[in-house]
Design a protein that fits this description.
single chain
Length: 221
């Protein structure tokens, strides 16, 4: 029987090393915190908006003034995780990746739009779909925040502009809800991507299959 003080068997050490070598780092602790905080605030926005616009939920929850207050503040605070994340070098590097759109991204988009499962879909750390989603959502959040402030602080602009802001805010909110539902659906279909956001690392085989150009990006850093 092996005593606790005895060294571990050689095959055990090799297995542990192989398991570690089979995974690569994808997101830092700070990036995971940014994603979770943003997701929680966005979830609050969607939940409170549903309580404000759906009669059945509004009647069930009640306390409309409290719901409105939570909705407004969760919307205003959405930019805070992003602003704090600027201090993270890893987050800034990923923002640069998300902002770059190269020829391989156009190839990825064409294959995705045609639903062609045979054609190659080259992607770096983020594929073209993720880049489009991130850019669109960032713009939508800014528009929602701007129109929301015009609705909340009624003295800022005349009634005509507030009415237009309400129209844009409401319809964009519905669009955001649909896009978020699609985003969550894609995440549910990819356990390894979710594991990367939960633990910070992903399987090397998954990275080479889904993001084959990421290896070159890492070498360029």
């Amino acid at each position: 029987m092996r005593r606790p003080s005895d060294p571990a068997p050689r095959h055990t050490e090799q297995a542990g090393h192989a398991g570690h070598a089979g995974r690569i780092s994808r997101f830092s602790r700070g990036e995971r915190w940014i994603h979770r905080s943003t997701a929680a605030l966005m979830g609050l926005c969607v939940a409170t908006a549903s309580c404000l616009y759906l009669p059945a939920l509004a009647e069930l929850v009640g306390r409309r003034h409290l719901v409105v207050t939570v909705h407004v503040w969760s919307g205003l605070l959405l930019v805070v995780p992003f602003l704090l994340g600027i201090a993270s070098r890893a987050f800034r590097a990923d923002l640069r990746r998300l902002g770059r759109f190269g020829p391989h991204d156009r190839v990825w988009l064409r294959a995705a739009l045609r639903r062609d499962r045979v054609a190659p879909r080259p992607a770096g750390k983020f594929n073209a779909g993720q880049k489009v989603y991130a850019g669109w959502l960032a713009g939508a959040v800014l528009v929602m925040a701007g129109t929301g402030m015009l609705m909340w602080w009624t003295g800022l602009v005349p009634l005509v502009q507030r009415t237009a802001a309400t129209f844009v805010h409401d319809w964009l909110a519905l669009t955001v809800a649909v896009v978020l539902a699609a985003h969550i659906g894609k995440a549910l279909g990819d356990p390894e991507a979710r594991r990367g956001l939960r633990t910070g690392s992903v399987a090397r085989a998954w990275a080479e299959r889904e993001h084959p150009l990421w290896r070159h990006e890492r070498h360029e850093e």
